[in-house]
Each structure stands twice: as C-alpha cells, then as structure tokens.
Amino acid sequence: MKKPVHTLATAMFAAILSLSAATAQGNAVQGEVRKIDEAAGKITLKHGPIRNLGMDVGMTMVFRVTDPAMLKQVKVGDKVEFEAENGASGYTVTKLQKSN
C-alpha cells in the first residue's frame, strides 16, 4: 500500500518542478546587446516579444538594470537571455546572462 502513495508523491513532485521550470523560462527573452551605459545603469537591447510586459512584437529599447554589475558581464554584440519587469522607475532588467 505504501508503494502507490510513494509513486504518486514522486509524480506530483516531478510535475511541480516541471511547472516551476516552465514558468521561470516563460519570462526569459532572447536579445542582443546594442549599447551599454554603465554610468546611467542602462542597457539597450534588441529583443523578441516580452509577453509578461504585454509586448507582442520584438523591438530595440533601453532598460534600467537592477544590479549595475550585470553590465560588466556583457558587451555590445553579445547574444543574451534576460528577464524584465515594469518597475517604479520603468522597464528594468532583473536577470541577464549571455546565451549560446
């Protein structure tokens, strides 16, 4: 009797992890660095649609960054994957990493 409960619990845990990963990846956007302004804490990205911000088409735009150290990890021309939100100070990149 314990075996079916264990199997069910394992399946539920796997489903939750899968859903969490899908949700996290759902906000990730592919882009390319066009300009970096370290003094202002801003980055210009050419990007695809950003669904969580209601942007159904790609464009090039300027974002603030939550952590200025992010700007030191990339250079103009780098392909990146990022997440953004509409914060109190405007559109802000909350996560940024180089992509392959």
Q: Could you characterize the architecture of this molecule?
A:
- This protein is an alpha+beta fold and 100 residues long.
- It has a single domain, classed as Beta Barrel (OB fold (Dihydrolipoamide Acetyltransferase, E2P)).
- Helices cover 25% and strands 40% of the residues.
- It is built from one helix and five strands.
- A five-stranded mixed β-barrel has the order 1-2-3-5-4.
- The chain is globular, with a radius of gyration of 18 Å.
Defining traits:
globular, 100 residues, alpha+beta, 40% strand, OB fold (Dihydrolipoamide Acetyltransferase, E2P), single chain, 5 strands, 1 helix
Topology of this protein?
Elements: H1 2-26, E1 29-37, E2 42-47, E3 59-65, E4 79-87, E5 90-98
Parallel strand pairs: 3-5
Antiparallel strand pairs: 1-2, 1-4, 2-3, 4-5
Task: Tally the beta strands.
Answer: 5
The tally of helices reads: 1
Low-confidence regions = 15-25
The neighbouring-strand order within the major sheet is 1-2-3-5-4
Assign the structural class, choosing from mainly alpha, mainly beta, alpha/beta, alpha+beta, or little secondary structure. Answer: alpha+beta
The assembly state of the depicted protein chains is single chain
What percent of the residues sit in helical stretches (DSSP H or I)? 25-40%
Q: Give the SSE string.
A: HEEEEE
CATH topology: OB fold (Dihydrolipoamide Acetyltransferase, E2P)
Shape assignment: globular
Q: How far apart are the first and last residues' alpha carbons, in Å?
A: 47 Å
Count of separate structural domains: 1
Main beta sheet: strand number and arrangement?
Answer: 5 strands, mixed, barrel
Q: What Rg is obtained from the alpha carbons, in whole angstroms? A: 18 Å
Give me the CATH architecture, please: Beta Barrel
Measured by DSSP, the beta-strand proportion falls in 35-45%
